[in-house]
């Protein structure tokens, strides 16, 4: 191919200026000399002198060696001399026969006229005819291409004395050219079909060939690139890179493969290519240029970037995932080590995310997680990292550039405040809290694994300490987290192992002092762990979902016990059972309650389910439907821990609730806090105005009881009357008609 290109280049360069082909130079000058001699011969003949035969012979010998048609004519058109080839062409025996003839003697009149007119014009001082190509049909009817040149013949004074003609058979060259032309077209079609960039450049990196794909990306035609370098089309920096690589190839002779190149196309879009460039050698192995192929890898690169992004980020929130977090953490540690700085890792877990997910579905859960991700991101600095590890677990990495602990404190507060603001999801308002565990470099660990683990442990501690809190890691905390894990393991088999039991705390009517109900409270005694407080295992059961089977068992047992008391002839009382969100979100919850009532044979009117405000708020409509369905079969409802949540008072009246349980915190603070007093009074009267009975929880002292009497509270429950006790003790209290003193 290189030869062909060179040839094309050469020929196109020389097409316009004609120089007599070398092979003609000598014959022409000899011809002129011969002509001169012939005239001299004539003169001599006229003068009776000896003609110089030898020169004319020599001339004939020479021109007969040439395969081309060569002749000279005088101004009247008579052949002075002609080559054998010409004679043969005209169908004559020998060149000798030509002498003294005109074209009219050897060609048809029409052709002879045309040729004569052209030759006369030249001899009249017109332009020479140089390399005119003509297709002729020879005497055998075969198409031939000839190239004709005709120049006026002049004597030493410049006077035109005749005409020299030369005609070469260029049929073969013509055919070759045609083939070459076809080859070129084929080559063009081929390279223009290819979507890759294909090009040939000279040693100065100027384009010699460029295909359509390459030109099209520049908004140009291929021809517009020829002779120009990349500097004409690309920014300096991009072109310099190409130029550098190509010059390296020119100088070293070594090809370069898989070069990653970027160009900006005419529309301004970035395109990436994998380029291979090799030296172009001539027949002597000299480097005469560069050939290049560039494959578009933009999509491939985008995919690769996307895969990389996906490997490093969480699909839902697009936050960094654990892998990227660890990478950043390790970078941060290396930096902090150098600058003797600090680093803080915060492990964040939403407290009641499972409620949202269970009650509103995964879609709503996803929306919440995304909203949390946004809030977390906007509450930290851009130098900090917010990552999602999965579920409702996030990690914030605080790069403590200023080495100010107060900054960290401020950020944590911002994070908590950001999460605490209500979320509106699918038209409903939600409140979530979070538990945060913190660990700092280098105090709580000097490598990423330890720091993350200790922040996680601290987070578990925060959960265990009642949620919505922040706990920083301290040594020895690992034991606490190990305990959490042990608890969870134990809890899984607690029911099967008969480790859960119920105690009952009497509820007393203030006016009469009589026990009218008992609250069933779960107790867990494990062989290894001993007694585990509900404050520990209930949240664990709720988080792990174990609360569903445990709650079922509690309900079943409480109903069975109450029915047994009634069957034993005791005064019928109500049994109050605590239920968790996880339970009431079970699709068959209403049927389960009904089934347990049927199985135990206890009348529904003696069952009261205690639910909390937050349970009601997470899905008002569903809660009301569930409660109405159970109210229809006679089950009662109480709102537990009232006053600690954010229930809307207007919604309160739409719930079929018969009792409000005033949270223990109000009662505890009564003595030294006037505000608490006023709030407690307000809640009592509010409940009563809404046709509910109000029961105060956690009553321990006479003073508290006095206050409740004054505030006209209906009922109470608390250590003052009795701690939660076993069924036998309760039975005794009721049978012996133990009254409030
Ligand atoms: P709760 O429903 O508010 O139950 C009242 C809690 O207050 C009980 O704690 C009870 O022992 C305690 N208490 C009662 N009177 C007093 C008092 O005068 N002073 C003090 N300091 N405490 C008093 P307990 O049994 O530890 O239960 C804690 C919580 O665990 C319960 O709060 C309830 O939310 C949950 N829980 C207990 N059993 C179950 C259950 O079977 N299912 C569900 N879902 N939750 C349960
Ligand atoms: Mg309760
Ligand atoms: Mg309570």
Structure, briefly:
The protein has 741 residues and is an alpha+beta fold. The protein contains 27 helices and 26 strands. Residues 12-21 have low confidence and may be disordered.
Which characteristics define this entry?
Beta-Lactamase; Alpha-Beta Plaits; 24% strand; binds magnesium ion; alpha+beta; 741 residues; binds ligand C2E; rod-shaped; single chain; 4 domains; 8-stranded mixed barrel; 5-stranded antiparallel sheet; 27 helices
Please specify the SSE layout and strand pairing.
Elements lengths: L1 H13 L7 H25 L6 H13 L3 E6 L4 E4 L1 H6 L13 H4 L2 H15 L5 E9 L5 E12 L5 E10 L1 H23 L3 E6 L4 E4 L1 H6 L18 H17 L3 E9 L5 E12 L5 E10 L1 H15 L9 H18 L2 E9 L2 H8 L1 H18 L5 E6 L2 E8 L4 H16 L2 E3 L2 E3 L3 E8 L6 H17 L5 E3 L4 H16 L7 E10 L5 E12 L3 E3 L1 H11 L2 H21 L6 E5 L2 H4 L4 H12 L6 E6 H6 L1 H13 L3 E7 L6 H4 L6 E4 L1 H5 L5 H16 L3 E4 L5 H9 L4 E2 L10 H9 L6
Helix pairs in contact: 2-3, 12-13, 13-14, 15-16, 16-17, 18-20
This protein binds ligand C2E and magnesium ion (MG) (2 copies).
Can you walk me through this structure?
The structure is a single chain. By secondary structure, the chain is α+β, with helices and mostly antiparallel strands. The chain has 4 domains: 142 residues, Beta-Lactamase, CATH 3.30.450; 126 residues, 2-Layer Sandwich (Beta-Lactamase), CATH 3.30.450.20; 158 residues, Reverse transcriptase/Diguanylate cyclase domain (Alpha-Beta Plaits); 236 residues, TIM Barrel. It is built from 27 helices and 26 strands. The strands form 5 sheets. The protein has an 8-stranded mixed β-barrel with strand order 18-19-21-22-23-24-25-26, surrounded by 4 helices. A 5-stranded antiparallel sheet has the order 2-1-5-4-3, with helices on both faces. A 5-stranded antiparallel sheet has the order 7-6-10-9-8, with helices on both faces. Helix 23 links the parallel strand 23 and strand 24. Helix 12 runs antiparallel to helix 13, helix 13 runs antiparallel to helix 14 and helix 16 packs across helix 17. It starts with a helix and ends in a 6-residue tail after the last helix. About 1% of the residues have low confidence. Bound molecules: ligand C2E and magnesium ion (2 copies). The site of one magnesium ion has 4 residues, from loops.
